[in-house]
């Protein structure tokens, strides 16, 4: 049984002027629904604004929630913030938060949206409105639920917003493995950044991931992993610069799962990047990630949770 968090607002129609394809969240839902009883569904609550304000500038939070984001920020985000989009922007961090709580109980849970790692304190950016990863991590530690969270970001783009929003906190550590020449041009400083050259293949990627994430987890000893499982390192991704195959992405999820299992760390995953014309193919890659992680990490019975 894999615990999956989904909110109907994720599938909100994209504003007409957007080039961003929101249909993939609906496709992810449909592919997971087809798995029947193998998936346990949870609909999250909207995140309370106070937790958005714990990482974002309250003025920016108000601009989004009141759907009056100025044009310069709209351009940085990549789509206009309508009332529907604002509603979605509260549902998504609510989903990552819900997935985190489910992961603590069941070993693993996935949000079918989120991974909005480019969102900064006073503006969204790169198709990200609020940074659900930072919001959930800050809430986990500030409510005393866990001592230290590691945000592990395998999207092909650097998790610059997440790094900036959590910088200097001893209770949150950030790891980002990405294509160095990709967006954002100006990188932030994660606790550990692994910038890869263009064209890295499965073997090169997996070796670098194992060689850097293993010591990172051992040095910082987190109690929990929030995992941004972007699938844009895929070879055919429109915005990626790396050359991972489908098998390489599956091996990546198995590696993440094994590192977490060896340290008895719960994992909550979000989606993330995945770009191209074939929305179903992209959704399938996200679902494969969720399924691979879920099969490895979900507790099969309560006794396993105690082990
Ligand atoms: Zn990306």
TrEMBL record:
The keyword RNA-binding does not apply. InterPro entries: HDAC_classIV, HDACs, His_deacetylse_dom, His_deacetylse_dom_sf, Ureohydrolase_dom_sf. SUPFAM superfamilies: Arginase/deacetylase (SSF52768). Keywords: Hydrolase. Pfam families: Hist_deacetyl (PF00850). The keyword Iron-sulfur does not apply. PANTHER family: HISTONE DEACETYLASE 12, HISTONE DEACETYLASE HDAC1-RELATED. This is Histone deacetylase. It comes from Sphingomonas sanguinis.
